[in-house]
């Protein structure tokens, strides 16, 4: 369920109904430069992409080359949470 432009009382009431019935709930609104967003996802699974840390040479612990080696790592792994 997605809501926008509703009163706070209505949002809370619908969120409680969704929560009791295991339905995902999203609400938000924008006021010029400011806005808000709320999501009640209940129990859910998601996948997070983690970058593998590159192993560097022991002689390159400091300096630009060591930092570049850590940042240039293109290998990633997906972690389910």
Automatic annotation (TrEMBL):
<dbReference type="InterPro" id="IPR035985">
    <property type="entry name" value="Ubiquitin-activating_enz"/>
</dbReference>
<protein>
    <submittedName>
        <fullName>SAE1 enzyme</fullName>
    </submittedName>
</protein>
<dbReference type="GO" id="GO:0008641">
    <property type="term" value="F:ubiquitin-like modifier activating enzyme activity"/>
</dbReference>
